[in-house]
Amino acid sequence: MTRITVLRASRLIDGAGADPIDDGVVVSVDGTITDVGAARDVNVPEGTDVITRDYPGCTLLPGLIDCHTHLLFSASDQALDDAIHDSDETLLLRGLANAQAELRCGVTTLRDCGGRGLLTLALRDGIDRGLVAGPRILAAGMPITTTGGHLNFCGLEADGVHEAIKATRRLCKGGVDFIKVMATGGGMTPGTNPRAPQYTVEELSAIVAEAHRDGRAPRRRPLPRHPGHPQRRRGRHPHHRALLLAAPAGGAGVRRPRGRTHEGAGNLRHAHHGLGARRHQAG
Questions:
Q1: At a CB cut-off of 8 Å and minimum separation 6, what does 161 contact?
Q2: What are the pLDDT digits (tens) for 111-150?
Q3: Strand, helix or coil at 9?
Q4: Backbone CA torsion sign across 178, 279, 120, 75
Q5: Rounded Cα distance, 249 and 197, in Å
């Protein structure tokens, strides 16, 4: 049986750059939006089988996209201890709570950029199967890092070209949506240096090559990017001048980082800026 839903609100933003529309209507058939516009211009279905929901004084708009989250992390003052010592069950429950909090804020797609093991993939799959409510998740699983490197407690340390390739293959086998590698240290992990590279160009190139071999489009990330098509992608935090200048040798595109950059990296700033939304995690 066809399921038709009509949403009406005082205003509507269609996300295409047009001015807000008064008395907006959205029509969906079996979960797919078929018509959007002013009520006077839309052929609004009628009948007993049509579900109509009115939101007077409200604004309808497309779902928001959060391009950088860590669903398994807490926002407490002990976020690092929580990430290291909490059980897998606790982390999964926290991930579900954070995902649903995002959904209540209007985020319908998010990109999770790293957590322990492959727990976020289980959360992603549970939402996809309709077991629990939540936004669409693109998950990296464990970030690739060096021994003792940034976010090493997530569980995937790799040193040298051989181990970097093996780590990439392991993640692809596990079903991640993109590959994330910690190319530098990070503020959340004591003893690491956010201003110095963890990986050589050769190691980064090996990860990129393996991602390409497996049909994935590798990418680096300091600024968030619209997740777009659910291909597996690769993100990183290049804080260091050497990494910015050497990045093209790795074979992946570079995005302008937050923080200081060297003037020689100016020609690399060809970023597509993604849409950020509220975060409920630290890191």
A1: 202, 203, 206
A2: 999 999 999 999 999 999 999 999 999 999 999 999 999 9
A3: strand
A4: positive
A5: 15
Q: Label the pairing between strands 4-12 and 21-29.
A: antiparallel
**Span between the terminal Cα atoms of the chain, in Å:** 45
CA distance 141 to 173: 11
Look-up of token digits 């429950």: 93
Instruction: For residue 44, count CB atoms less than 10 angstroms from its CB and return exposed for 0-12, middle for 13-18, buried for 19 or more.
Output: middle
Closest-CA residue to 256 (of 242, 243, 271, 277): 271
Specify the DSSP element, H or E, that contains 214.
Answer: none
Q: What is the DSSP letter of 264?
A: G
Domains and CATH numbers, the chain: 4-60 (2.30.40.10), 64-268 (3.20.20.140)
Q: Is 76 helix (H, G, I), strand (E, B) or coil?
A: coil
Residues 178-202: b if buried by 16+ CB within 10 A, e if exposed? bbbbbbbbbebbeebeeeebbbebe
- pLDDT digit string (tens) for 222-280? 433 333 333 444 444 444 443 444 344 455 543 333 443 443 333 323 222 222 233 33
CB atoms within 10 A of CB 56: 7
Per-residue model confidence (pLDDT) at position 49 = 86
